[in-house]
Amino acid sequence: MADVLAENLSDKAVVGADGTEIGPLYNITMDLRTGALGNLLVEPNEEFSVGSSGFEVDEEGLLHVPVSRVQAVKDYIVVER
Hints:
Elements: E1 13-16, E2 21-30, E3 37-42, E4 56-57, E5 63-66, E6 70-73, E7 77-79
């Protein structure tokens, strides 16, 4: 995957590989010791079924999508569901 600047990811739409609109990217977690990326924090759309997503949900209602699930980053971020 080509390098992508973090500033270009802010509020980018996150969609499932099946075309399901999940919601906008809120933030990305990172291990400060190693620099490894952890999870995409996504604000789920109202229409998105959080319970059947298979992703962890935090107390703020944000989905934690493992970076390992990212398949492509173009006009939107495509993730494996």
